[in-house]
Specification:
single chain, alpha+beta, 7-stranded antiparallel sheet, 5-stranded mixed sheet, 12 strands, about 30% helix
Length: about 270
């Protein structure tokens, strides 16, 4: 049913009814263990999927009616999704649950108020350096070199689980190490970051071949894999990382550390083209 302006007057009541159903304690087995967002989206898909209609061929009026009906369903679905997003943004408990964990380019980012990274951590250099071409041969891809930094002073390759590799490029800038880690973005999370507050992560828009990036302006905990000296054993390690820019470029995830200025880090990322 629509009002004189063509709006669906049943939408508010439908959304309220949907909210009451989602709050039922006796949830379906199919919904057990699902995240709230997944439950809402599944409910919307189940209820808004148009029922197939058999229409005689050549009946233009019925086709036009079907077009109007499907358009109305799309608008209702869009409005319901907007309502869901509003709940996620405005309801603190739900917002906190969503912010507890997310994945960005294979990097697992977690929010933990109890995280206590140590201040003044130094950026590690490139252990066991190899020529740039050799690093590409070992990793199976050509390393990306930002034009704003030029040829790296050192390059290393680290083996990750399941025969995956991370290429690390290092530059020495006035006694400070600038480090760039690169790996295939399609991989499961090999790095993990834990931040102590929601303000410790900022979204940054980039130009060129990249779209979005995450900027970590404060020290945070970084979890990663370490390879033993003989290359036979992998162990999970953790250290404090300083300001870091994380972004996806084409099919790779890149992690830049050692640049304190967000503007400078953004310039380096965008110089990949």
């Amino acid at each position: 049913m629509t009002d004189g302006a063509g709006r669906d007057v049943r939408l508010p009541e439908e959304l309220r009814a949907l909210g009451r159903r989602l709050d039922r304690p006796e949830a379906d087995e199919a919904y057990e263990g699902s995240a709230m967002a997944e439950r809402v989206l599944q409910q919307l898909v189940d209820e808004r999927a148009p029922t197939p209609m058999v229409l005689p061929r050549g009946v233009g009026e019925r086709l036009r009616a079907l077009h109007r009906w499907t358009g109305l369903r799309r608008r209702t679905l869009a409005a319901a999704l907007c309502g869901l997003l509003t709940v996620l943004v405005l309801t603190p408990p739900v917002r906190a649950a969503v912010a507890d964990w997310f994945d960005f380019g294979g990097v697992e980012v977690r929010y933990d108020p109890s995280a206590t990274p140590s201040p003044g951590a130094r950026v590690p250099g490139c252990p066991h350096p190899v020529p740039l071409a050799e690093a590409g041969r070992q990793a199976g891809f050509a390393p990306l070199v930002p034009g704003a930094l030029g040829t790296p002073d050192a390059v290393s390759v680290t083996r990750a689980p399941k025969d995956r590799y991370v290429v690390t490029l290092c530059w020495d800038e006035r006694g400070r190490t600038v480090r760039l880690d690169e790996y295939a973005a399609r991989l499961a999370p090999e790095y993990g970051k834990t931040v102590a507050s929601e303000q410790a992560v900022e979204w940054v828009e980039l130009t060129g071949g990249t779209r979005s990036a995450l900027w970590f302006p404060r020290p945070h905990l970084l979890r990663f894999w370490m390879t033993s000296a003989d290359g036979s054993r992998l162990t999970r390690s953790e250290r404090t990382a300083g300001p870091t820019l994380l972004w996806v470029h084409d099919t790779f995830t890149l992690r830049l550390e050692g640049v304190a200025s967000k503007a400078r880090a953004r310039e380096i990322a965008e110089s990949l083209g």
